[in-house]
Predict the structure.
Amino acid sequence: MFKEMLEAVRQQRPLIHNITNYVTANDCANLLLACGASPIMADDPEEAAEITALCAGLCINLGTLNHSTVPAMLAAGKRAGELGRPAVLDPVGAGASRLRTETALRLLREVPFTAVRCNLSELKTLAYGSTTAKGVDAGEADRITEENLAHAAALVKDFSRRHRVIAAVTGPIDIVTDGERALCIRNGIPMMSAVTGTGCQLSSLTAAFLAANPGQPLKAAAAAVCAMGLCGETACRRLTGQDGNASFRSYIIDTLYHLTPDGLEKGANYEVL
Amino acid sequence: MFKEMLEAVRQQRPLIHNITNYVTANDCANLLLACGASPIMADDPEEAAEITALCAGLCINLGTLNHSTVPAMLAAGKRAGELGRPAVLDPVGAGASRLRTETALRLLREVPFTAVRCNLSELKTLAYGSTTAKGVDAGEADRITEENLAHAAALVKDFSRRHRVIAAVTGPIDIVTDGERALCIRNGIPMMSAVTGTGCQLSSLTAAFLAANPGQPLKAAAAAVCAMGLCGETACRRLTGQDGNASFRSYIIDTLYHLTPDGLEKGANYEVL
Amino acid sequence: MFKEMLEAVRQQRPLIHNITNYVTANDCANLLLACGASPIMADDPEEAAEITALCAGLCINLGTLNHSTVPAMLAAGKRAGELGRPAVLDPVGAGASRLRTETALRLLREVPFTAVRCNLSELKTLAYGSTTAKGVDAGEADRITEENLAHAAALVKDFSRRHRVIAAVTGPIDIVTDGERALCIRNGIPMMSAVTGTGCQLSSLTAAFLAANPGQPLKAAAAAVCAMGLCGETACRRLTGQDGNASFRSYIIDTLYHLTPDGLEKGANYEVL
């Protein structure tokens, strides 16, 4: 099921416009290159929409938003919508400040996103305006586990339907849904949260998968989520006793570089909810 | 003595607000994660103070300051002061431009910092307005060695008393003082200066140690300085003949990821001056 | 021929001012440190020219230009010209947006650059105003290969003469020329394009080589291009079956850290056109 999704990325090599944070931009770029896509980062309002028009997909990430990049996000997002190109929103830290919450909500209103990729705290902020987030990480109560899976899935599906987006909510367990169908994904390991920006990287990767697989957004987003988690699992097996989160960071990207469509197909660990 | 300092960081997992440069932000984030803390980077004036209020500590780094982030630094620093949260200043390149020198001096006047972490050239600029800095590195004359240690320590203590901050001045030998007591720390190796941002990383780490150890700022700052230097020493032993400064960069963070409180206690190489 | 160029960098340790993008700034800094130079990044218009005046060389990179950094680029570039310091332009993405194209052209008009380092699509945009670029990468038709080498070399030489700059145009084959003499360089491997910012890194490296070798800009620029390509070749031989583009990224910098002047001399693969 997911095999063709990665094949399409490797064949089409989509150019992805990222308006993202300066903390993890390098990793997002190298991860896109690892999957066969090409990155371009451009966040000045004067060029943002023009760059989007060149690209097959767009990823908007609020990690280090500022008064100059927010108008760039809006302009780029609207242009993507006009051109029918897939756009992904990663509302990093929604709930942590009014600027982040309001920017995320405004983007959701004004841009026809294909997908929103976030954690459960951020999703709740967008859905209800309240949150138990801890900075840019999900609050303890918002980690998706076997115990709260059914409840979380209902919430995410409702959000997806209401905003007409694919919602890809990640945590110990991931949920990807188009509002009708929902997949629960169990790829990934806890140590991934010790590497800054694995979520940001996944959002950029999702944009690449969506761009290369038009008309199949649920499958494309789910494939990206499985691929990222699977790379974490595989990279973890490579860790020596001296390797820590910095080497793990590199190994995750290295692993995607070598991931084959068949490897993704076999390693994807999901079920339909 | 330092064991409890690291234990507290690992247990409390303090969230640290970093207003820092885009060159080393990723390393600062991964180093914070390696020690058990959580990073958040946010530098727009509209949200800076609000993010600080969410966090246990603040690190302000002038590495790539600009007209937009300077007001964010001031707002965040003042809020940290109002809330009694520890704030660290890293006056990167003070002395290299008027903007850097004046911003550092203004921050020192207006923000009740808990600690200033810098090299001796930067400290002299803040103390006297003059410098022999070479860009963002200490000038040759300002490297702290056995020869100038007593003189440097007197200068740093004086600065510390005058500004009522912990001063953590690093170089071939490090000095950490609260103005009364001073520690001289001999952890670390020269090759650390071939990795960009080890100073920035230490400043963020200091904020995490201060946040997790309220009421013990001298011990907390000194523990952070020892930990960073010790990670450099340990990481260096892992270098193969092909590894250079880029692999060393990852190994330093990896080493902190595995550093135990007992390991820090045993490896800390300091004396009371 | 190139041996002395690297020796001079290692002996003089030039301080290089980079106004560059936030995606690859960390790699540019670590690469400069690896070759023995020192980096400083500073992009606020208020301090840019002042920082340039402290430095032995300047590198201006349009990777994530914005309305604030463009004036900083102009001010820094003009100051470098007044002081007779070498300045390098890397017109990342010229042709991808009007802002990039116009900024690159304006910089070329107003700043007396010593060298322009770019790909063939970017060069054509600067020369003719048109392009077949794919985002920040050269378009397929603009990859320099044996087939189009003579034609490309003529174009690059013409550009070099017209703008009185060393032109260093990289691709599968690299061309470096002062408008009279031209070198064709065959160091480097395709996998380098799977690491974000190898071009940016080369531009910073070129500034360091120019700064340490005044009066020999063609040799200095060509030595930098050979060094970068050679590091890619050598780093590639170190890759295990699990290593991908992220480990390769570190190995390239590691390799430069260990590159000797003799090693560069022996490994340089070039011919006079």
